[in-house]
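batch_manifest entry 22 of 60
target: NAD-dependent epimerase/dehydratase family protein
source organism: Lutibacter aestuarii
requested by: lab member K.T.
priority: normal
notes from requester: please return C-alpha cells only, no post-processing; we will run our own comparison against the previous entry in this batch. if the run fails, retry once and flag.
--- input ---
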Amino acid sequence: MKKALVLGAGGFIGGHLVKRLKSEGYWVRGVDLKRHPYSYIPANEFIIGDLRDPKVVELVIDENLDEIYQLAADMGGAGYVFTGEHDADVMHNSAVINLNVAHESVKKKVKKIFYSSSACIYPEYNQLDPDNPKCEESTAYPASPDSEYGWEKLFSERLYLSYKRNYNLDVRIARFHNIFGVDGAWNNGKEKAPAALCRKVAETPNNGTIEVWGDGLQTRSFLYIDECIDGIRKLMNSNFEGPVNIGSEEMISINDFAKMIIKISTKNIQIKNIQGPEGVRGRNSDNNLIFKSLGWKPTQPLSIGVEKTYHWIYQKVKNKEADDLWEYESPNNGSTIYQKKIGSSTYKKMS
Ligand code: NAD
Ligand code: GDD
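--- output ---
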C-alpha cells in the first residue's frame, strides 16, 4: 500500500486530495494547523501541527513515505493577499514551511514531492490586457508578480528545483489558476471570487443588489476542484516535473461571472461595482504545455462547477440564518444549556 503525506490537509484542496488518495487505496497522513471545517476526512492519521516548526516537520516526514503533497500555505483570495495587510505573514509563513519541508524531504529520502505553486507568479506586465493575458509557463521571467504571495511562490518553486538539482529531490510543480468548489472557504475573509459571489447572491433577496469589486471587466478563469485533483494525480503519476499550469481556459469577466451565478439562483439581482482589491487585470490558464506533456487538460464547462458550488453555499447561508434565530438561554438556571428561538417559546436542548 502506498503511503502519502498531505500537508495542508485541513484546507480546501488538501481535503479533497485526501479523499481522492484514500479512494485510490493509499494510506494517508494529513497535517494542518486545524481540522477541516466541513469535510470529515477519513485520513488514516491526522496530525494537528505547525509546519513552521522544524520539529513538527521532522516528526511528520518519515522514511516510509512514497509521496508528499505540499499544499500548506498562508493564502486567500483578493481580499486577503492583495490588500497588502498580510504581506509579511504570507511571505514568512509559507517560505518557512517550504524551507522546512524541502530540507526534511531530502534528509528522509522521500520518493516524490508535489508542490502547489500559483498563477500569481506570472508577471503583471503580461496581464494588463483583460482580453489577452499571457500565462504560458515560459513567460514567468523576467519575474514581476503583482503580489508578495506570488513572489513567495516563485521563490519556493526555485527552492524545490534547486533541491532537485543538488540533491535529486523528485519534484512535481503545478501552478494552480483559481480553484473553486464545495468545501472551500466562503465566509472567513479568505474566500475567492467564486465563493464570495455565490455567498453574496445567496444572501441577497429577490430584486436586491450585490457589490462586486472593481469595474467587473477584469477577467479570470476558474477551475472546479475535481478537475484540479485529476490534474494533480496525473502530474504526480508522470515523469514531467513542471512547473505547469493546472487551470481552466474558459476566461470570463467578473461581471459576467456574477451574472452566471445570479442566473443559477433564479433571482432578479442587480450588480453594483465598487472599489476593492482587484489583483491583475486579466488572467487565463494556458494549457498547451499540460496537454503536450500529459495528454490531458481540464474540459468541464465552468457553469457545471458553479451550479454545484452555488447550491452548497446556498445551504450554508440558509443553515447560518436558521442558527442565527437561536440564542443561548438556560430557562431553569440549571447546568443544561438550552437554545431558545428568538420571539418564540420553543426550546432546543443542546447536546
Ligand atoms: P487553504 O487555505 O484552504 O489550505 C491551506 C492549508 O494550509 C490551510 O488549511 C491552512 O490551515 C494550512 N496551513 C497554513 N499554515 C500552516 C502551518 N504553518 N502549518 C500547518 N498547516 C498550515 O488553501 P487551498 O485553496 O486549499 O490551497 C492549497 C495550496 O494551493 C496553497 O499552497 C495555495 O497557495 C495553492 N493555490 C491555491 C489556489 C486556489 O485557487 N485555491 C490557487 C493557486 C495556488
Ligand atoms: N474575493 C473576491 N470577493 N473577489 C472579488 C469580489 C468579492 O466579493 N468581487 C469581485 N472580485 C474580483 C477581485 O477584485 C478580483 O479581481 C477577481 O474577482 C478575482 O478575485 P479572487 O478570486 O479573490 O482572486 P484572484 O483570481 O485575483 O487570485 C486568486 O487566485 C490565484 C490563482 O489564480 C487568489 O486566491 C490567489 O491567492 C491565487 O493564487
